[in-house]
């Protein structure tokens, strides 16, 4: 039973990171109909920048983390301004490819600067297990989970109660209507990229703290896709729930299915099988808008 | 090529549209193919190998160009489907004892079937879902190659030996190039034929204006299905040919990066045209070779070559999309038009 709870807790934690990163993905999609394939690379480079700041500036992991968020915001604005803004009316394919291109550039930067080896954050939390009654969990997991919740709640409140949040929701629900009442769409797109960069960087720093940093961190970006499809491409609440579900599927799949079937790597693949099944039976996902175009 | 140019005078089903628009292009194509066939026999192994790779990638790219360039169905799993073709063809020949030609054909059919399995649901939806579905296909298929040892023998792939047809062994790589060239030329003729047919033009109509196309009586579902099946048939065939080119079907050759390269190939080459597929293939095969050469010459630390190459590749993708989104085919066409006006000044079309 401990095995089960261990996997479940792990799944929920990983899933909450997916949910947080998926928030950025869905936000960009809703605001500008861009599928951001560079999300994972943003996550990866965020983690590396934070690591570099920790070692170079000696300001502690928390201080470095905050500074990382600022730097990542600047980077997001640059990406939006220099590249994506010029691609506003380009076909879907070009936009997808341009985000892939950006991702490749970011990955090559990481490989050139930090190399392919695994790097580690300094141990800044004493790693003591906490007894939750039914299972013991490493304290760093609890910190991570809480951080994810704080970020998601923070953005939830931001969208709900601030004027900027309202403007972003307006632009996401209808670009034409929003523009006709004077919403500056460019600024909304830029802001969506900033939010995406921030949540990605946060996800990257959290996973980097748990498992160390390799360029493989960028795989997190694509693991968000199943969550996004399961939740519904345009539903933030849906993807948040779906992120956790996908995390749990991944862990239980990796744990139990491997024992039953003898196949390795099933955990990583299982979410994508779920993605295909969802497309077969319920393409709008759990909570997305039903959009059957071009039938 | 010559034959097909004649064919159009016999069949006017395609509204009298010729396969290649101008006489210059027709002669050029024949000269190019004959030149390659003869010239390749005198080249060293390294250049024959490059040429073979370019030709196979052109064939694969025609499939992707049909799918993504003409029909607007974006697939980010083309390499994985090439892998399906490569492994099934190897299985048919080695495990089932079928002749090579039959195996190549069947590999194309199987690949088209697997493509439909993944793509069918998203053909009803907007293009974004298809991108994500094919992405999932790439991940799932690659994992399958690593796990299904009854098919792939080892997670790294399986050796396939030397290709042979009716007792003739292609043990000289220049001979194997001729086989590849024949398939690619045939693929090119079929591709051009498809484009000038009603079906090909329906594809482009559906890509541009799905609703209007339907109002004009085009069958959306059928057109997409044909594009999807045909595009993946090309992938399967090209993948199988690639396997015998290397004499080893390597799982790694069909990874996500290769799929991305395939998309980059048709974008940089030129979407929806035959010359785009060929020019893109030349670009995608030669660029890393040249960068490697330059890197070995200029850099002391060889370990940075791979990431540098990656970065330059990414930068080229972004710059092309920003500044020449229609790819090299357009620049190429301009150049050809210019040459043509010089050469066939009197009676060019």
Summary?
With 295 residues, chain A is an all-alpha fold.
Helix/strand layout:
The complex is a heterodimer of chains A (295) and B (349).
Chain A: H1 2-32, H2 39-57, H3 60-82, H4 92-113, E1 129-131, E2 136-138, H5 139-161, H6 163-173, H7 175-180, H8 185-211, H9 219-231, H10 236-261, H11 266-281
Antiparallel strand pairs in A: 1-2
Helix pairs in contact in A: 1-5, 1-6, 1-8, 1-9, 1-10, 2-3, 2-4, 2-8, 2-9, 3-8, 5-6, 5-8, 9-10, 9-11, 10-11
Chain B: H1 2-10, H2 23-39, H3 45-70, H4 78-95, H5 100-123, H6 127-147, H7 149-152, E1 157-159, E2 164-165, E3 168-169, H8 173-196, H9 198-208, H10 210-215, H11 220-246, E4 248-250, H12 256-269, H13 274-298, H14 305-323, H15 328-343
Antiparallel strand pairs in B: 1-4, 2-3
Helix pairs in contact in B: 3-8, 3-11, 3-12, 3-13, 4-5, 4-6, 4-11, 5-6, 5-11, 8-9, 9-11, 12-13, 13-15
Structural account:
The complex is a heterodimer of chains A (295) and B (349). With 295 residues, chain A is an all-alpha fold. Chain A has helices at residues 2-32, 39-57, 60-82, 92-113, 139-161, 163-173, 175-180, 185-211, 219-231, 236-261, 266-281; strands spanning 129-131, 136-138. Chain A has one domain. Helices cover 74% and strands 2% of the residues of chain A. The model of chain A has no long low-confidence stretch (mean pLDDT 85). Chain B has 349 residues and is an all-alpha fold. In chain B, the strands form 2 sheets. In chain B, strands 1-4 form a two-stranded antiparallel sheet. A two-stranded antiparallel sheet of chain B has the order 2-3. The two termini of chain B are 19 Å apart. Chains A and B meet through helix 4, helix 9 and helix 11 of A and helix 5, helix 6, helix 12 and helix 14 of B.
Task: Provide key terms for this protein.
heterodimer, A: 295 residues, two-stranded antiparallel ribbon, 11 helices, 74% helix, B: 349 residues, mainly alpha, ABC transporter involved in vitamin B12 uptake, BtuC, two-stranded antiparallel sheet, 15 helices, disordered N terminus
């Amino acid at each position: 039973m401990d095995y089960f709870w261990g996997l479940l807790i792990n799944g929920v934690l990983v899933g909450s990171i997916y949910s947080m990163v998926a928030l950025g993905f869905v936000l960009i999609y809703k605001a500008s109909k861009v599928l951001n394939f560079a999300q994972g690379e943003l996550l990866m480079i965020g983690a590396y920048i934070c690591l570099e700041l920790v070692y170079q500036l000696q300001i502690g992991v928390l201080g470095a983390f905050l500074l990382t968020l600022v730097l990542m915001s600047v980077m997001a604005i640059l990406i939006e301004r220099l590249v994506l803004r010029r691609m506003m009316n380009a076909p879907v394919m070009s936009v997808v490819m341009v985000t892939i291109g950006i991702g490749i550039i970011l990955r090559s930067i990481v490989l050139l600067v930090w190399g392919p080896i695994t790097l580690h954050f300094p141990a800044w939390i004493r790693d003591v297990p906490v007894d939750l009654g039914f299972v013991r969990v490493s304290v760093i997991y609890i910190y991570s989970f809480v951080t994810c919740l704080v970020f998601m709640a923070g953005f939830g409140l931001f969208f709900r109660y601030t004027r900027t949040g309202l403007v972003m929701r307006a632009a996401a629900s209808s670009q034409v209507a929003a523009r006709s009442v004077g919403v500056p769409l460019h600024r909304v797109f830029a802001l969506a990229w900033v939010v995406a960069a921030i949540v990605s960087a946060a996800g990257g720093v959290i996973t980097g703290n748990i498992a160390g940093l390799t360029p493989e961190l960028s795989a997190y970006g694509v693991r968000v896709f199943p969550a996004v499809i399961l939740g519904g491409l345009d539903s933030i609440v849906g993807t948040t729930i779906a992120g956790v579900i996908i995390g749990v599927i991944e862990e239980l799949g990796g744990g139990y299915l491997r024992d039953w079937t003898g196949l390795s790597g099933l955990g990583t693949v299982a979410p994508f099988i779920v993605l295909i099944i969802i497309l077969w039976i319920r393409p709008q996902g759990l909570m997305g808008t039903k959009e059957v175009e071009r039938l | 090529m010559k034959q097909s140019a004649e064919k159009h005078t016999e069949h006017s089903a395609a509204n009298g549209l010729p396969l290649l628009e101008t006489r210059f292009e027709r002669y050029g194509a024949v000269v190019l193919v004959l030149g390659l066939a003869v010239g390749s026999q005198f080249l060293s192994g390294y250049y024959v190998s490059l040429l073979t790779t370019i030709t196979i990638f052109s064939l694969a790219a025609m499939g992707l160009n049909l799918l993504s360039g003409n029909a607007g169905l974006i697939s980010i799993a083309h390499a994985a489907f090439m892998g399906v073709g490569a492994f099934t063809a190897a299985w048919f020949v080695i495990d089932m004892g079928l002749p090579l030609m039959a195996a190549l054909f069947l590999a194309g059919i199987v690949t088209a079937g697997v493509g439909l399995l993944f793509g069918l649901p998203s053909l009803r939806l907007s293009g974004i879902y298809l991108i994500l579905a094919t992405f999932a296909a790439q991940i799932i298929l690659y994992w399958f190659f690593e796990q299904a040892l009854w098919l792939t023998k080892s997670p790294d792939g399986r050796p396939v030996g030397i290709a042979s047809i009716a007792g003739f062994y292609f043990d000289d790589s220049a001979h194997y190039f001729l086989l590849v060239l024949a398939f690619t030329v045939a693929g090119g003729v079929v591709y051009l034929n498809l484009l000038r047919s009603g079906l090909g033009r329906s594809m482009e109509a559906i890509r541009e204006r799905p609703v209007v196309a339907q109002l004009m009586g085009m069958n959306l579902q059928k057109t997409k299905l044909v594009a999807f099946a045909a595009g993946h048939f090309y992938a399967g065939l090209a993948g199988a040919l690639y396997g015998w080119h290397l004499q080893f079907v390597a799982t790694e050759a069909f990874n996500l990066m290769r799929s991305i390269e395939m998309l980059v190939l048709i974008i940089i080459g030129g979407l929806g045209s035959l010359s785009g597929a060929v020019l893109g293939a030349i670009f995608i095969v030669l660029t890393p070779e040249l960068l490697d050469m330059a890197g070995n010459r200029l850099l002391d630390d060889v370990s940075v070559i791979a990431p540098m190459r990656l970065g330059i590749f990414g930068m080229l993708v972004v710059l092309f999309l920003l500044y020449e989104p229609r790819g090299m085919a357009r620049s190429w066409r301009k150049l050809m038009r210019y040459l043509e006006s010089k050469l066939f000044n009197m009676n060019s079309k």
